[in-house]
Write a structure and sequence with these properties.
Blueprint: E1 9-14, E2 20-25, H1 40-52, H2 62-69, H3 72-75, H4 79-96, H5 108-121, H6 125-144
Antiparallel strand pairs: 1-2
């Protein structure tokens, strides 16, 4: 019976003696897998890696960002729009991934987000506005579903 394992990444390296060797990973940047593809040991090490995969911490901005990307609303976007959103969501994750959701109700939070947007605008105002729009959409989506509390941000004019 054939089992399709999702996200497997392989890398072929040329060794010092001139031979080639393929290394298998559970996903890009993931843990290495033991055994050869198709063996029970390989499937077992894949299942172990998936079980250990890090779950985003609850109570931080990372959880609504990940939940939005797993939603049907995100899946309904055009492929190009999804790709653009992912690019901006990665920037938001880098800068605000550990930001506590409880702080969203604080009035100073909007100023923090605006300062972030202004830092991005130093490089490209249009991309900064797009990132702001993505952040607003994710927060609005999460507010509507009760993932976070607070007032949704409006797009900048």
């Amino acid at each position: 019976m054939r089992v399709r394992l999702k996200g497997i990444n392989s890398i072929t390296k040329k060794l010092a003696d001139g031979t080639r060797r393929t290394y298998w990973y559970a996903w890009k940047g993931g843990p290495p897998l033991r055994g050869e593809p198709g063996t029970p040991e390989f499937v077992h090490s894949y299942n172990e890696a998936i079980a250990r995969k890090v779950v985003p911490p609850q109570g931080t901005m990372l959880s609504p960002l990940r939940a939005y990307q797993a939603s049907g609303e995100f899946d309904g976007l055009a492929p190009r729009t999804r790709a653009d959103y992912i690019k901006h969501i990665r920037v938001i994750e880098k800068d605000f991934g550990d930001f506590p959701l409880a702080a969203l109700t604080d009035r100073r939070t909007r100023g923090t987000f605006m300062a972030w947007r202004d830092r991005l605008a130093a490089k490209s105002r249009r991309q900064a506005d797009y990132a702001w729009q993505v952040l607003a959409r994710v927060l609005s989506w999460s507010l509507d579903r009760g993932v976070c509390a607070g007032e949704p941000m409006r797009a900048r004019r």
